[in-house]
Structures are given as structure tokens and as C-alpha cells.
Design goal:
The complex is a heterodimer of chains A (521) and B (344). Chain A has 521 residues and is of the alpha/beta class. Chain A contains 15 helices and 17 strands. Chain A folds into 3 domains: 291 residues, NADH-ubiquinone oxidoreductase 51kDa subunit (Rossmann fold); 69 residues; 137 residues, Fumarate Reductase Iron-sulfur Protein, Chain B, domain 2 (Orthogonal Bundle), CATH 1.10.1060. By secondary structure, chain B is mostly helical. Chain B contains 18 helices and no strands. Classes of the chains: A alpha/beta (521), B mainly alpha (344).
Chain lengths: 521, 344
Amino acid sequence: MMSWRQRSKAERARQAGERLHRFHGGLRLQHYKKISCEVPVQRAALPPRLFVPLLQHTGRAAEATVSEGQHVLKGEQIGCFKQLGSGGVHAPTSGTVSAIVRHPISHPAGEDGRCIVIRPDGLDQWLEPEPVKDWQSADPETLLQCIRHSGIVGLGGAMFPTAYKVQAASERGIHTLVLNGSECEPYISCDEMLMREQPDSIVLGARILQKAVGAERTLIAIEDQMGAVHQALQGAVDRSGAAHISIVKVTTIYPEGGEKQLIQVLTGLEVPSGGRPADLGLLCQNVATATAVARAVTEGKPLVERIVTVTGSGVRSPRNLLAAIGTPVSNLVDQCGGYQPGAARLVLGGPMMGYPLASDSNPVTKAANCILVLNEDEIRQPQAEMPCIRCGECARVCPALLLPQQLDRFIRAQKWEEARSGGLKDCIECGCCDFVCPSHIPLVEWFRFGKSTLQELASGKQRANVARERFEARAERLEKNKLLRKQRIAEKKKALRADTGKQEKIAEAIERVRKRRENSE
Amino acid sequence: MSRHFETGGAPHFPPHSTVGGVMRQVLYALVPGIAAYTWFFGVGVLLQILLATVFALALEAAMLKLRGQPVKRFLGDYSAVVTAVLFALCIPPLAPWWVSLTGMIFAIVVAKQLYGGLGSNLFNPAMIAYVVVLISFPQYITAWPQPAELASHGFGPLEALHTVFSGQPAGGLGWDAISGATVLDAIRNGTAAGQPMESIRQSAAFGQLAGHGWEWIAGWYTLGGLWLLWKRIISWHIPVAVLGSAFLFSSALYIADPASNPSPLLDLLSGALLIGAFFIATDPVSGCTSSRGRLVFGAGVGILTLVIRRWGGYPDGVAFAVLLMNMAAPLIDRFTQPRIFGHD
């Protein structure tokens, strides 16, 4: 029996989007989006060499399925990803595999990883595509199979294999599919441009995903700032004739594009700690992921390219480029007029959560939504931090309702139990606290450090448990052996005593030895 | 050719405020109140502010040097100046210079630097300083000049200067000649003598609503406090809790016995309650940090202030109330932890 509270929660989740709610904290940041939205998305020219990373998803790296010197066609599988059963990595163009090398990549797991280097042949020739015939009558498993084989991962930056996410969600039961089109970070505009220019593809992807996961309806969440987008999407929905897709405008407050925050805005409910939106019957997907799904299912084309925003005051002419996966960042910046003289920081992603790149030789990955180049005067200068004055601004802006200054104190004092119970794992690393801190304490860096330590401690505990069990098993085994040996000796002695003939023989032998000794004396 | 970049942790945007900036805004917010105070009580007010600031900065610099801390960086945070100004606003404008020096020694050296400097003090330094001088030199701290008396004796800037540095009122006057009971003194002495509130209100100290001059000063402090709220330098929780609890408590007493209790409005506008609610109890370092904690903290300050005013040994109780609640702050914080996102 469901309790009243659970039932009312389920009810509210089903009413997602009917009434908009608020999430705690957050920031109203300046957008800086217009600078990259002035020209339409352009296809980027292919670079002389593509560096396609084998690690472009959460988990372990894929294994290369091609060898040096081999000719590949566009869309051909070049890396296979056994874990989670995703389809791996595909060739972004036709050409020759010139090497498989370690190269700088942009992945939270490490600074460099194996990349397949492809020299394009200039023909850009597709492998014979195998679309799903008549997707509307296909069963969900067929659709999932296609998504899986097309190497699609969450394009919003999560890099989680989409097929796996959809499958896990559908097992829990999904009533509402949410397409996330609110890219709340400043500067990033690739999703906005995609929604403006390819609304039909997004709506098509939404219908396919909705069918694959078995949802009843779809909500497409966009920001209230995106003027032209609403019309474009509404037009596409009307053209498709789908009755169960609605568009919701949400207020632009950072980090509204975060999955948990968006769901709170749409439903007023919180995704349980350690849980997933599927616990509330919702599945969240990025709009770009939906177009990738549409292309994979209806055209049979795997994920080999994406729209990347190349922007910031450090770039001469910012814009959005449709880039082949594996294109070096330097190549895309060159196609945007190159760097401005003051360019000081290169970021993959947005200014709040993006990864700083040490070099522009890093290739574009599936998760690379933005290449941001900031000038010297726009970035945080290395500066001495001041002591915390407990002003509480960090707690006021924290969307996870944490007390960041307290967590910071726990981590510095290595009070891991307190840090854990203070909700360190619930931190989404949005950087709001860090941004407003008047003492300039690098809170996010401390939290990342704290989180990794908590993980290590947890796995260390696990290792210790395994070792203890092994030790105990060994001690038990030794004890048992000892007992067995004792038993065997006792049995032998008993047998000896019982055997009278043998005893007489022994007595005779002893007698013989004694006599011989006497004679020799 | 690939180009290399310096890396740095996210967020990449520069921070949008500094400790020094926060403290400076607090000082700006005090300007209207200080102006009104000077209007009624003369340049002695500014003199006290100047003296306390000079003492505070000198002591802070010396202590930072002794502690091996970067002097320039910490002097630039303006926290010592805020302490000095708040202290100077709490003592009579003609108090001798060594009152200020004693106060600042206890505020900066003892209450702040010996506890570990900025961010580590358990108690509000300005209130420690005030309480120390109040207990040590009651004759100077309770001698509040009366605006009317000052005017009638032709007290100007020179006389103020002379008084502060000599420790004796200029022109051979006694302290009695220029000072008089404040509103809270009058209420305290009057009720102790069994006088009804109505006749206490006839005292010369009273203006329209509260103390003559003081009602205006309190109003300007409030304006500065509202500006701080608007600029989000302080959160609403502490001022609302201090003033709300004081108002409710005072109302209850007033309703129960209007003859021997001042009206709630008179309570709020008298003494240090308004400057306390907006500028003193809101000191983040020594107060509570969670929203609910701040409500409890503020309510404690408001109620304790009234308890001390009615039943304690001093006419006003803001300083003692703040220090008592400072002591309770860590405990309150412990029991008012907010619920974390996604937890039941």
C-alpha cells in the first residue's frame, strides 16, 4: 500500500510542468549568449588529423577495433565499449587510421587517454546506413538496440550512455520524458541554436525516446530568454501532429539546467538523495541527445558530430560550429578567427563548471558543448584567500540546501564522517557558493577533494573488509588443520597401542640394541 | 601548433565580492545615522569615531605583525574599522580618549586577535569593548550629554576636543551640567521610584516618540539597515527576529500593565535596539549561520535585551544580550541544520 504522502508525490510528478516551482538559491548570471548566436550554425572544415578519444563516456575506455593503416568509412565503428553495452566510438569521417596514441583528452578521469588518429580522405563517405524501418511500429527493444549501437551518450555533458539510461528508467516505469533545453550556464548557446534550427529533429527524437521508454508525454523545457526557440519548437510540434508534447518556459536562474533543479522546477519535488529522476517517474534527456537519437533511428547514422559553441572575449568571431568528434580545439578556434591577444584561459564547457584545458590540442568529444576563451581581466586571478567570516551567502545560494562553509571546515579538519552526514555527496559542484564567497575560498575545489577522499575511504573500507574476511578464513582454516592433525596423531597412537604384535616387535628390537651395546663394551 | 594555457579551478568567473567590500558597505550604511547623531550631539561623535579607528588600526597592525600575518591584506578588510565605528557610536561623544583606547585594546587585541583574528572571534569585538568600558568606567559611559544643555553652554568643536583629551568638561563645567538622564535611565529610575509611565514621559529627555534626537538617529540607522538588506549584505532573519521578538515581548508587558511599562514603539526606538538589530547582532562571525539559527539568535537578542531593561542592573541590555547569544550561537547552529536536498 502506498502511503498518502507517496501517492501525493506520484500525483505531483505526473502533473510536471503544469505549475512551475522554485529551487533554493541559485544565481542570476549575465548571459553572454548573444555573441555566439549572431550567425547560423556552420559546418566546421575537417582538420588534417582527427583525434578520436576512446574514452568519451562514463566508465572505462572503449577498446580499439581498428588497426593502424586501416581505411575506415564515416560512421564505422572504431571503438567498442563492452561495459554497459553501449555501441562505442565511430569514425567521424572516411579516411585512414594513421595511429593509435595517447593524447590529451578532456575527461574527468584523466588528462590524457588513447585516441584513434584518423587522416581524412576528403570524401566524407558514409558507411551504408541501416535505419530502423518504420520506427513507429518498432518495439522499444529495437529502438534501444539502435541507440546503443550508435554510440549515443548524454550530450549535455554527463556522457552517460543513453541506451543504458533509457533502459534503466523504463524498467522503473516512466510517465514523463523531459527534454532539457535550458542551458543555464553563461556563454553556451549550442542547444539554443539547435532548437532554433532543427526543431523538427528534436521533436522527432522526443517521440522516439518517448516510445523507447514507454512514457505518456514529453515536456521540452526551455529558458524564458530564448525568444525565437519557443515558436520554432511549437511549429515543429504542430507539424508532427504529436498531441502529447508540450513546451515549458522556465525562468533563467543558474543552475536550472541541472537535472535535479529542472525537475524541482517542473514538479516541486526533489529527486531523492542518491536516487534518479526515474524514482519520480521522469526521464531527463538533453535536446541534442534527442536529435542524435532521431538521426540514429531514422537515418541509421551514429553519433559522429555535434554543435560546439566557440565563444568568449578571447575569440575573434564567436559562433556555433558543427564539428566532427575528434577535431582539435585549436582547429575550431582558428575557424572562428583565432585568439584575441588577451586570451588567458581555455575552458571546455561553461564558466561556472567547465574544465580548464592546459592545451588547445585537446579534441572535441561528444560532451564538448562549448569552447570558452576568457581574457585576463575576466578570470579569477590567483589571490590569497581570506578567513571565512560566516556570512552565510554560500548557504543562501546553494541549490542542494547545504552549508558550504561548514562542509569546508569539516574537509579541512579531515572530519570525514561529519562531511558525509553534512551532505558532501549531495553537492552538485555548480560553483554558486564559490562565486559569491567574499573570502574567495575555493570551495568547489575543496568539495571535489573531499568527495574523492570519501570515495577512497569507502573503497578502502571495502578492501579492508575483504582483507579481514580473508584473514579470518585463513585463521579458521589453520585452526581446523591443527585439529585434524591432532586427531590424526591421536588416531595413529591409538592404532599403535591396539596392535600388540607390533609392540612385541618393538620390544624385541630395543632388547637387541641393548645387547649389542653390552657386547661391544 | 598547440598553444598552452594556465589552468585554474572552476568557476572561472572572478568572485563578485570581497570581505573589504562587505565591510565598506556596512560603513556606508552607517553614514546617515552618524550624520544625524553628529547633528544632535556635535563633532564629539566624529572625534570618537576617529579616535577609535586610529587605535583599532594601530592595534590591529601591531597584533598582525606579532602573529606573523600579512598586515596590509588584513588591514584592508576594514573589519577593524567597523568594530571601531560601532564602538564609538555606543559610547558618549564626550568620553575621555582613554576610554576609547581601553575599549579598542579589548576589542582588537583580546576579543579578536587573541582568538585568531578575522573570522575566529567567538564574541562581537565592539560589544566586548563596550561592556568592558561600561563596567570599568561607569561614570563616563553613563554620562550622556543632552543636546539642549550642550547648546545652552555654547559647546562647540573646540570644547568637545578639550573635553575628550582632558577628561574634564571644557569651561570648568561639571559632567552634571552638560549631561542628563537618557530615556531608558528615566524609565528605569522612574519605575523604580514607582512613578507612573505618564509622568516619566514628562522628562526633558523625551521627544515625540522616544528620546529627543535619539528617535531621529534610530530612524536613520534603520534606513542604513534597510539599504544593507537591499544590497543583500545582511539577511532579513536577524533584524526581523530581534525587532519582532522585542516588539511582541514589549507589547505583552505593555498590555498587561500599561502604567509601568513603556509602549513597544518607545522600546524599539530607544537605546541601541535599532542599531543593534541591523548592525551589531548581524555580525556574521560571532552569530549563527543558518537561516533558522539566525531567527533563534535574533529572537534571543531581542528578548534578553528587554529582560535586562526591565529586570537587570543596566538601563539598556543590547550589548549583554548579543554577547550572551554569541555564547549560545554554536549550540543553536548545531540544532538548526537545514534539511539537505533530496533527504527526508
